[in-house]
């Protein structure tokens, strides 16, 4: 299941190629495409390469797999990261659907984001995921009170609010996240991992309980998952 790459450059090139290929297929078939990306430091080199892909970006819509409940001006904003690293050059013409909105509550913001994504009327064509050292993907954190709902495969695709963890548990602030159904229904999902520790975490989580492990739930739901790994952290 894990595809190994000898260098970080080869890993980033391969991830960008797979994502661009899925978007190109969607554009050829439907004249439009829907992409969802992750935040954090890991995806930046992938986004830089993807932004250079020869696609009709005017017909691509981009969103996030999760977001902190902060405005784009915050240094913690995943939207700001995506706009700095992916939505540049020709890719700047893509349409962007944020998960965050300055609603009264994170749950209301989640409802608004759900409406906006559902209005696209299509599944995700390409998804880039990362994974934390605790095994979380998107904002599906171990021990979170929302985890059971987020991992329920029978629920329709939606965006959910995630509360801040208590007593030092992750996440440190409220978040918004896509649920498992969005990921399982996607046409291609690339999970990009670096370093020996995250490989070990992935292998442990892949063999875990789909009711509590997001990675195991993704596999059990038969998501079109491709795991790309390089030892170079």
Word description of this protein:
The protein has 233 residues and is an alpha/beta fold. The protein has one domain (2-230): Rossmann fold (3-Layer(aba) Sandwich). It is built from eight helices and ten strands. The chain has helices spanning 8-30, 44-50, 78-85, 106-118, 147-150, 180-184, 196-206, 214-220; strands at 2-5, 33-37, 60-64, 66-68, 95-96, 126-129, 159-162, 175-178, 189-194, 225-230. The strands form two sheets. A seven-stranded parallel β-sheet has the order 1-10-9-6-2-3-5, with helices on both faces. A three-stranded antiparallel β-sheet has the order 4-8-7. Helix 1 (8-30) crosses helix 2. It is globular. The two termini are 20 Å apart.
Q: Which tags fit this structure?
A:
about 35% helix, seven-stranded parallel beta sheet, 8 helices, alpha/beta, three-stranded antiparallel beta sheet, about 230 residues
